[in-house]
Every structure is written in structure tokens, then in C-alpha cells.
Specification:
Length: 76
């Protein structure tokens, strides 16, 4: 085995290592991006649900306030 074959083998080995690294890096980067998108979607859904329940709670509070006001007026 002469020096040129050794250099070619080393370059091929390094090229293979870089390819494996970049493939793994790309997969992990894609997975992180998907998780980030899922997190944003989940956070938006949480905000929609919170807004819905806040609206319902305010409606119930108003109804109870009216009921209390009516009962006070009836008992006077």
C-alpha cells in the first residue's frame, strides 16, 4: 500500500464520517423543528381553551350577580 492509497482511504473515511454526521444532524434538526411546531400549536390551543373558559366564567359571574341582585330586591 503506497502513500497515495493511504491518503485516498483517509479522505474517503473522513468523507464517510462527515456524511454520517450531517445525516444525523439533519434528522435531529428536523425532529427539533417538528417539536417546536407542535409546541407552538399546543400553546395556541391552550390559549384558545383558556379564552373560551374565561368567557364562560365571566358569563356565569354575570348571571350569578344578576341572580343575587334579583334575590336581594325580592327580599326587600
Amino acid at each position: 500500500m503506497d502513500f497515495s492509497e493511504l491518503i485516498i482511504g483517509f479522505i474517503a473515511f473522513c468523507g464517510g464520517c462527515i456524511t454520517v454526521y450531517l445525516t444525523a444532524y439533519s434528522k435531529e434538526k428536523g425532529k427539533n423543528k417538528a417539536l417546536k411546531e407542535d409546541l407552538i400549536e399546543t400553546e395556541n390551543e391552550k390559549k384558545r381553551i383558556q379564552a373560551k373558559f374565561d368567557t364562560e366564567l365571566e358569563s356565569i359571574k354575570k348571571q350569578h350577580a344578576l341572580d343575587i341582585k334579583t334575590r336581594i330586591q325580592v327580599h326587600r
